[in-house]
Write a structure and sequence with these properties.
- This protein has a single domain (2-247), classed as Alpha-Beta Complex (Spore Coat Polysaccharide Biosynthesis Protein SpsA, Chain A), CATH 3.90.550.
- Helix content is 32%, strand content 23%.
- The chain contains 8 helices and 11 strands.
- Helix 3 packs antiparallel against helix 6 (188-201) and helix 6 packs across helix 7.
- The longest helix is centred in the N-terminal third of the chain and has 15 residues, at 63-77.
- The chain is globular and about 45 Å long.
Length: 250
Amino acid sequence: MIGLVLAAGAGRRLRPYTDTLPKALVPVGPEGQEDSITVLDLTLGNFAEIGLTEVAIIVGYRKEAVYERREALEAKYGVKITLIDNDKAEEWNNAYSLWCGRDALKDGVILANGDTVHPVSVEKTLLAARGEGKKIILALDTVKSLADEEMKVVVDPEKGVRKITKLMDPAEATGEYIGVTLIEGDAAAELGDALKTVWETDPQQFYEHGYQELVNRGFKIDVAPIGEVAWVEIDNHEDLARGREIACRY
């Protein structure tokens, strides 16, 4: 199993940081310390702590910044990093971006969005949930109060995920998908095909629509509740302030 990071997005709501950096390289250490740790640092640290030695990173917007840091990151976290170019990163959404990493999925991956600050307990929870024929396991926050922007999930205790979308009444949802997934290698072909169907239909769709496509086809996707854990998806400057507050705990 390897780590896989989606780090191709532009993150325009985080300007001026993202004028020169992809969102995954925006600093989340103390404000004013521009050379401090990033979301990518935190994620690679998590991967290293659970014993992963290989990581693939899907890059696109300002990818040269990731290429420049690759050797230093490899040395710091003791992992071998493969960079995968997304040629449509500034035009299309992340269903296509994850599809660009379809070959990496064959090894089995823990996938992490490049803008999610979270503790290693999330990866450990996913690993503990493996087995019993589970092929895809989503990290799910069942504690947080939900609103319109969250990626909401409805789960059936027997059938697994039934619905995953932002476009849902929060009261209907079981919880929020936090942007971290364990994907076994034997799910790679089916997920890759679902993602292709999604982005060919509408290149502006999220990769979570690929999960929904799988569910619609009868594929079972499981979840692992993460408990009461501090985490944040960094989309804007308010999120970034929260990310800094959380990152210093880990």
